[in-house]
Amino acid sequence: MHSVFPEMDGCNFAFASSPLPSTIPVPAAAAETKSAQLRILMLHGFTQSGPSFRVKTRKLTHLIKHSLSPAILGQYPGGIKFLYPTGPLNLIPADQTGDEASHQEESDNWAWWRTLDTTSQYRELDSTFQRLTDYISLHGPVDGVIGFSQGAALAVMFASWCESSIVPGREFALATQEAPLTIAAPQGPLKFAVCFAGFKGTEQYYPGFYEPKIETPIMHIMGRLDNMVTEKHTMDLFDTCANGVLMAHDGGHYIPLQYNILLPAVAFVESMFREPYYIKDVDGFMRDRKADAVLEIPKAKVERRNSLKSVVLCSRHIKVIRRRRY
């Protein structure tokens, strides 16, 4: 079995499932408020949690909040809300002393499924999708998703799943794959996804997420020194996206903090809400942000099979590969 995370091979974890959150009916007034919010789902990586991921993405979310124009924010009087669910699977390090009681102590290490490879079936995936369904029911539908590592892999699956109502063949593909997903998607298609160090789920069990190709615009960001999720893993995922953008940086397995890496991701998110849906004044955009990288990307239209037209990125630290349709 080939691990996506070779450095974690041999790690001995026990696993315990946490209860799914109850679905509480949302009052009409609360539902109105929720509909006026711009909501972004934030999916943590393996051994992380919602609260810990909030800390790791604080700079990114701050930039997103302060980059959206008043015209965009005017559409969302409830403001921007970043939603940080925690995976359903608690990871408990196996006690080397053999103390049985310690195995029952809850850690703050969580996962969306327990295996760290691209060859096995993710047996906890159904409970993960049920958790996301309950979470969306409680908090309202989201406009986009941002994920890291295992959370990035899940983010792409989630985006694909939410296309079920509009992409011909998606629902059938998910229902008939070797590990079928028959739970109805909790909402319609997303406007965007941003994936840091993402990888593709096991081809044998989950082809329905990737074929037909995913229409949601997705930005994939990979570290050239990442020895946990390699460039090949992210490239394999990128190749499943009809409207994908790929960016590489010179770091490892983490969400970068440098502005010249985060700003292209912020520009990507911003462009999904813009009229006429792309950044025209590149020089003006750059002056405002004191950076040397920016994206020009048309608005996502999931119902149309259009590729992203232009990507403008110039930095010695960044390389972008433009997605082309074949």
TrEMBL record:
The keyword Hydrolase is assigned to this record: yes
InterPro entries according to UniProt: AB_hydrolase_fold, FSH-like_dom, LovG
Pfam families, sorted: FSH1
GO biological process: secondary metabolic process
GO molecular function (one): hydrolase activity
Keywords, sorted A to Z: Hydrolase
UniProt GO cellular component terms: cytoplasm; nucleus
Occurrences of domain Serine hydrolase (ranges): 36-259
Annotated protein name in UniProt: Serine hydrolase domain-containing protein
